[in-house]
Design goal:
This protein is α/β, with parallel strands linked by helices. Helices cover about 30% and strands about 20% of the residues.
Length: about 450
């Protein structure tokens, strides 16, 4: 009789094998340890990703600054700016290059404006009650970053002594830093400290964080928190040990992939539970994960939310806010962005009135005002007779409760549930309708629809 390998163990084996093949750091199982935690200022906030190049017709800092009142009205709390540093010219991809090919860690891309204009944008965002997170590209630099000639020991070289792109990628426009040299750690810590101390950014989203050793991130984080104790660090990675001392949150790549698979019928709704169980085992207790349906990578390279999620765009978006974690909106989602933005050239978002603005504003407002949706608030799935189609989740904190029912399929469903927690008086978050339930309850939920109820007692 063959023994079945548990799903989590199988995932870890595969992940460690992939890491070994790429020379990356193996994942550790950290479920018996405690996560670093998140700063209070992000616990109720929604993150909004800003692609400066595509955000406005001008494609600069001024175009974003002019729109800050609308973003505040939307209800987001954190602006994550894709890299704003100068872009490399040597081996550049496309006419304008990738923002992730950094030519000067201390500089500002003249395409977007000046250093003074970015500092003014940060101050203006703070005046609107918004925090600012800057994208940080720590694993590699542009070929023509001055460090290549001034500090060649900062880089990995091939047998002929030439710099090389990151292993296992097609990133031909960048070269790999060498983290066996701790002078690289010191340099990056000093540069990141500059943006926090001198410019006023509130944290960093760290690109390809799995390409940098956890020990390096730990050292950098300690330096940053000596300057600002509540700095926020987000890892574009699913490396559990990174949340022990360095990062406050990590990407939930796995859940985003599950959303795609459920939407296309490639996986059942229960895969969401499997993914939650996987991360609960791997990540330390209290770990925070970024929840999203799209971002710059997904939009440009994998497809629009409509291409990937079909009729479930809104239902999956609701679920991304209802699951414990930190929700993300990519710029343009609230305007019904329906095309893949070009990555290496100008391709401004078409801003238009859309019912999705009020949809996302409702979710952001609920996230901001209801303790039950704070990062770390209790979460559990509510069992229904429609478990094959509907994911129902309850969140609870400080006597407040929110329950959401999301139909994640193209089939109509009748939801029946006997959970005693459903009894009581509720307000529909989207319609304002007041309902009083006594369990068991029964109601229809048509294809791709959702219902979010807030306790009114």
């Amino acid at each position: 009789m063959k023994r079945r390998i548990p799903t989590v163990s199988l995932f870890l084996m595969l992940a460690c094998l992939l890491a070994a093949l790429r020379g990356a750091e193996p994942l550790q199982v950290c479920g018996d340890q405690v996560a670093l935690g998140v700063p209070d200022w992000i616990r109720h906030a929604t993150v909004y990703e800003v692609n400066v190049r595509q955000y406005s017709a001008a494609g600069n800092f001024a175009g974003v600054e002019a729109d800050l009142p609308r973003l505040r009205q939307l209800g987001v709390g954190v602006l994550w700016f894709m890299p704003i540093q100068p872009i490399g010219v040597v081996n550049r991809k496309g006419p304008l290059g990738s923002p992730y090919s950094v030519r000067d860690y201390y500089g500002v891309n003249p395409e977007f404006g000046t250093a003074a204009e970015f500092a003014r944008l940060v101050a203006a965002a703070h005046a609107q009650g918004l925090h600012v997170v800057l994208d940080w590209v720590g694993n590699h630099t542009a070929w023509d970053n001055p460090l290549v000639t001034e500090h060649p020991d900062f880089y990995v070289h091939d047998a002929q002594g030439h710099c090389v792109p990151p292993s296992g990628t097609d990133w031909s426009d960048v070269v790999q830093l060498d983290f066996t040299n701790h002078a690289v750690w010191d340099y990056e810590a000093a540069a990141m400290t500059h943006w926090v101390r001198d410019v006023g950014v509130d944290g960093f989203r760290c690109d390809f964080a799995s390409g940098v050793p956890t020990a390096c991130w730990d050292a950098i984080a300690a330096r940053l928190r000596a300057v600002r104790p509540d700095v926020f660090l987000l890892a574009e990675a699913e490396v559990p040990q990174e949340q022990l001392h360095a990062f406050n949150a990590s990407y939930s790549f796995g859940m985003m992939k599950v959303f795609d698979d459920v939407a296309t019928g490639g996986a059942g709704v229960s895969r969401i539970d499997d993914e939650l169980a996987r991360t609960a085992v791997l990540f330390p207790r209290g770990a925070a994960l970024l929840r999203y349906t799209t971002n710059h990578d997904e939009n440009s390279w994998s497809g629009t939310v409509g291409e990937r999620l079909g009729g479930g765009v809104q239902s999956f978006a609701v679920l991304s806010f209802m699951l414990d974690g930190i929700p993300l909106i990519y710029d343009g989602q609230e305007a019904g962005l329906d095309r893949r933005l070009k990555f290496f050239e100008r391709d401004p978002i078409t801003w238009r009135e859309s019912p999705l603005f009020d949809f996302y504003r409702t979710l952001c407002t609920l996230r901001r005002t209801d303790p039950a949706l704070a990062t770390g608030a209790a979460m559990r799935r509510v069992a229904t007779t429609a478990n094959g189609s509907v994911y129902a989740v309850e969140r609870e904190a400080a006597g407040h409760r929110v329950v959401a029912f999301c139909n994640l399929t193209a089939k109509d469903a009748t939801v029946e549930a006997a959970d005693p927690a459903l009894s009581g008086r509720w307000r529909d978050a989207f319609t304002g309708e007041m309902v009083t339930w006594q369990a068991p309850v029964s109601f229809p939920l048509t294809a791709w629809k959702y219902r979010v109820l807030v306790s009114a007692e």
